[in-house]
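Ticket #4471: structure export looks truncated?
Reporter: QA, pipeline team
Priority: medium

Steps to reproduce: submit the single chain below to the structure queue and open the exported record.
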Amino acid sequence: GFVDSWEERYKYIIDLGKDLPALPEDKRTEDRLVRGCQSQVWIDEQMEGDRVQLAVDSDAFIVKGLLCVILAAFNNKTPQEILDFDIEGYFEELELMNHLSATRGNGLRAMVARIQDIARKAA
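Actual output as written to the record:
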């Protein structure tokens, strides 16, 4: 199961972020940058058959960890699956939003919006 206390969960999310492979320098471009995040976040996508493959990176470990949480929901799914997924419900289940600062929460939503946008264009 998921770790119990928020402190443990926070540490776990940061550890997830540390394991996330870095996005190559040439992919860290202006057009892959997500607006509305307080740290720098890049999202790169490519289609593999009918599935969306996402590669993500950030200059903050907690954000990289949050990106891992989002990837668990969205990566390697069809555009339609991404658009149909109840991401708010998923965040609620993980109790993410109650514990994140408003700016972090908005940043998280900006990352999600960007991925949904990618899915819309690919659908």
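Status: closed, not a bug. The export was complete when the record was re-opened. Leaving a note from the reviewer for reference: The CA atoms of residues 24 and 113 lie 23 Å apart.
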